[in-house]
Design brief:
Layout lengths: L1 H4 L3 H10 L2 H8 L3 H10 L4 E3 L14 H6 L5 E3 L8 H8 L7 E3 L7 H10 L5 E5 L8 E4 L1 H11 L4 E7 H4 L4 H5 L6 E8 L5 E4 L9 E9 L19 H5 L1 E8 L9 E4 L4 H8 L4 E2 L10 E8 L7 H11 L5 E2 L14 E6 L12 E2 L12 E3 L12 E7 L7 E2 L10 E8 L7 H8 L5 E5 L6 H7 L8 E6 L4 H8 L7 E6 L11 H6 L5 E6 L3 H17 L6 E6 L8 H4 L13
Parallel strand pairs: 1-2, 2-3, 3-4, 4-6, 5-8, 6-7, 7-9, 11-12, 14-15, 15-18, 17-19, 18-20, 20-21, 21-22, 22-23, 23-24, 24-25
Antiparallel strand pairs: 9-13, 10-11, 10-13, 16-17
Helix pairs in contact: 2-4, 6-7, 14-15, 15-16
Length: about 575
Amino acid sequence: MSNLLNLPEEILLLIVKLLDMPSVFNLYNTCNRTRNVIRMNRSVKKCTLSHNTMASAHVLNSVFIRDMSATIQELNLSAVGNLNKTILLTAAKRFKSLQSIDLGYTNITICDFLDIHQHCPTIKEVTINFIFEKKYVSLQLSQKLLTRCQRTFKDFKSIHFIGSQSNLLKNKIVPLILGKAEDLHLQYTILNETKISYITVECEMRTISFKKFYLYFSLNSWKYACTNFLIGSPLLLEENLNACECIFILKPTPLTTEYLEVYCSPLFTDFFSKKFHIDARSLREYRRSTVHNAMFLFWKRDKTVFDDKFFQDLLTCLKAYFPYYFEPTSEDPAPSNYDWFQTTCLDPSEDEHPSGSVVEPTFKRARVGQPNSLLNFDTVFKDKEKIELTLCFYGLKINPRTLSPSCNFLSKLTYLYLKGKVHYSGEFFNVLFRCCDKLETLNFEAPIVTFVKSIARSLPLSKSIKNLRIVAKDMDFQTMISSFSQCQNLENVHLVDVSDNCFEITDPLIMFQKCAYLYCFHIYVEISDAKRTKLMQILNRAKLRSDKPHISAFIINSAHYNFENIPYIEVFKTIITKPFPM
């Protein structure tokens, strides 16, 4: 620390710009010198109070934010659970330079935002839930309210609405309230249907003047699938579609998450062929089918320059959605322009030879079971420094899969998705967590055979794991929570129990206290409302006693799985989420 304090002020400022908000906050509180450097130079322009230990509304009234507020230009409050209009309205008066605010997945309504904007009129970009009132009834919007929305959004550059298909695509509200805006960057995220629906008074229909329009479907179950979702939308009128260059990227069902269908204008055909080795189909071949997870991108031809920079930005945006598929038996090095890779592993007896070698038992047994099959991708990833890997397993009689500490690719893994019907060897997870010293995200799905106890025993060996999602049956939550409390770097945890057994949870206080960076802990189970209320009291008491109000701790009835957790599961690559704005 003494070396840090001896650095010139210019170097300290450069360091500040590279830190996330919790780290800047810690540096601010270190001593008077660092506090004065940060405060006097007003170096914080982008403030993210989301998905970290500062994700609490009360932070807005802290001395730290008060000192920074005059020069903050971007404020991200996405999924801050205790955010309300009163706190935000008080803070908004201090943000003199604020241009962009993210209020998605919070309790802030559009009516709330209209009042907030009056105190902070510099805001020209907003992300917000498409909810006008906190009422679970049909609500008629008055002409006065619609006119006020038009006046507020008139000069906005970017608007991102998060809501249901019926409210965003199937009525005239959005074209009405955005009728006076010009050349918008407009985004919709379509979520599961809600009980809130809106109707409007009869008034003149307007056409939205958008420069680019991004539409995302992020639906979580067959129950909420959308069919013919573009038909009848006042936004996607024929004249708009004819004036646009378009890309449709679809995941038709939840069971084919590893495959994407791409339809596009002729302008993008070569782009997908050269960059992703995908034969994108013509838009004329597109049939409005059932969709759970999809992305639709539109750019107005007369307002967009489709130059080299545009396509480079497009590559940056879409790269995260397209893994490179390779055969498990491949000996070819992975291409350099991919970061995410995927392969499908079958029973070794069905392959010419497996994706490694067969590991025979090293001792004699009276009855010898199936030999382990080693997963070894060293040759494929020999030129890579970081790897994101999805392994899909199929076949009920597959040989147990194992890992070896001698495999070099393990030390390169940053993301791993294990899914399908497979048996893992006894040492699999021990090697995984011990040798994958860069592994930050593990997404594990084994709904048929459970390996949760093996994971729990070995998880504390990991010094890098941050994001953990487990889909399995018959979970021992007490054992899991005890294991998590030994993983100080854990940030984002999701446990999905697909069984219908009786569910109990131990007090997670020690876990909340020891996991210094934890901001999300969600459990999905079939549970009655009465029991859920009782167990939620345990979680809330643990948050209170550990003095960590920022933790999003919920028990969610899997029978009523909703969209509120979407911002927390984006990192697991199970849904299509919005790309970076272009």
